[in-house]
């Protein structure tokens, strides 16, 4: 009994010591120095047009390097230099080394196109359940009909999953912690979405803890997206090295968001914007983001299986082309949805 007690005390002491070694949130000066060394960041949330979700992008059977290479070439052709890309723990769980090899291959392709990447670990959006293997076909005219959360409902059904998630985050981040092809680690996409609210705070807190234990050279962040989620927003703003956020509002409202967030004294990166029917457009918002030296990462590069050219709340089950695309810049063949937009983007990016 005495030996067991001593062992327990030793483990507790080691865990306490390890916890005390967590690196702190970057100082504002450190964050701003990191950002000042970069050109204006502009790009898109990227998934190849042949993938309906994160698993189809990253599983070995459907990892489509030819399409990734071609479509990142479209991005390079108009001066985009940054992509935001979602990962999924199931793809890692199937084959950790193979998954990391594919991440490395993707990074090599992106780097060849002079594109830096931010990776996203967790996500509270869209379908709550998922499975490895063949993914569902898109539902005609339905925005993100096959997109999946991570970890979704499984986090609540299987308490031991958290151990897997910890190994996953630490393995990926440790492997690539000094990789200059990675801009930052976006730990959790829209925590609290789909009605979760503060229920997502425990996993968000764990994700930041795991990231600080690894202590990568890249900054950590989790983007704020809903002003009503005050508890989550407070935590995210206090714990992010640099501030990331989403805003699909018209330019005047978006400018107010920037004015509010600039008071925190850290770099600002908009990691989702541009929804044409909501008057969040390249013509209105992108010049404003450049003027404020805020990273401009719009949702969607090439139309494809995600169906995000259709609006969130306006399905078109007949699959007809919407009169106005919600997201996306290019058609699959590389032609622009709106040549005036790509001409503008080229002009804005030619002198960042």
TrEMBL record:
For this chain's UniProt record, which GO biological process terms are given?
xylan catabolic process
Q: Where is the Glycoside hydrolase family domain?
A: 142-299
The family database entries (InterPro entries) matched by this protein are listed as: GH (IPR017853), Glyco_hydro_5 (IPR001547)
Leader sequence segment = 1-19
Q: Which UniProt keyword terms apply here?
A: Carbohydrate metabolism, Glycosidase, Hydrolase, Polysaccharide degradation, Signal, Xylan degradation
Recorded hits in SUPFAM superfamilies, A to Z, give:
(Trans)glycosidases (SSF51445)
Any single GO molecular-function term of the entry would be:
hydrolase activity, hydrolyzing O-glycosyl compounds
Name assigned to this protein: 1,4-beta-xylanase
Q: Which organism is it from?
A: Ilyomonas limi
What lineage, starting at the top, does this entry show? Answer: Bacteria, Pseudomonadati, Bacteroidota, Chitinophagia, Chitinophagales
């Amino acid at each position: 009994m005495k030996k067991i007690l001593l062992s327990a005390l030793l483990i507790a002491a080691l865990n306490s010591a390890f916890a005390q070694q967590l690196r702190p949130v970057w100082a504002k000066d450190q964050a701003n120095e990191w950002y000042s060394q970069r050109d204006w960041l502009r790009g898109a949330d990227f998934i190849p047009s042949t993938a309906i979700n994160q698993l189809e992008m990253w599983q070995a059977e459907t990892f489509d390097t030819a399409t990734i290479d071609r479509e990142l070439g479209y991005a390079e052709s108009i001066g985009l230099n940054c992509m935001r890309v979602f990962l999924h723990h199931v793809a890692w769980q199937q084959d950790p080394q193979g998954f990391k090899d594919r991440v490395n291959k993707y990074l090599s392709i992106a780097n060849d196109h002079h594109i830096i990447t931010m990776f996203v670990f967790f996500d509270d959006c869209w379908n709550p359940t998922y499975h490895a293997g063949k993914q569902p076909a898109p539902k005609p005219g339905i925005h993100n009909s096959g997109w999946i959360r991570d970890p979704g409902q499984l986090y609540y059904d299987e308490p031991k999953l958290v151990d897997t998630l910890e190994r996953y985050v630490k393995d990926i981040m440790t492997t690539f912690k000094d990789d200059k092809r990675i801009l930052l680690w976006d730990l959790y996409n829209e925590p609290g979405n789909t009605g979760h609210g503060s229920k997502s705070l425990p996993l968000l807190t764990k994700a930041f803890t795991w990231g600080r234990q690894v202590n990568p050279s890249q900054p950590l962040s989790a983007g704020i997206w809903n002003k009503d989620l005050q508890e989550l927003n407070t935590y995210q703003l206090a714990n992010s090295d640099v501030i990331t956020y989403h805003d699909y509002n018209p330019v005047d409202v978006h400018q107010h968001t920037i004015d509010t967030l600039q008071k925190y004294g850290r770099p600002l990166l908009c990691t989702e914007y541009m929804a044409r029917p909501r008057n969040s457009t390249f013509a209105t918002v992108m010049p404003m983001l450049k003027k404020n030296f805020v990273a401009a990462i719009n949702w969607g590069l090439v139309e494809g299986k995600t169906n995000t050219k259709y609006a969130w709340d306006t399905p078109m089950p007949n699959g007809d082309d919407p009169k106005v695309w919600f997201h996306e810049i290019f058609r699959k063949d590389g032609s622009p949805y709106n040549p005036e937009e790509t001409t503008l983007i080229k002009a804005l990016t030619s002198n960042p």
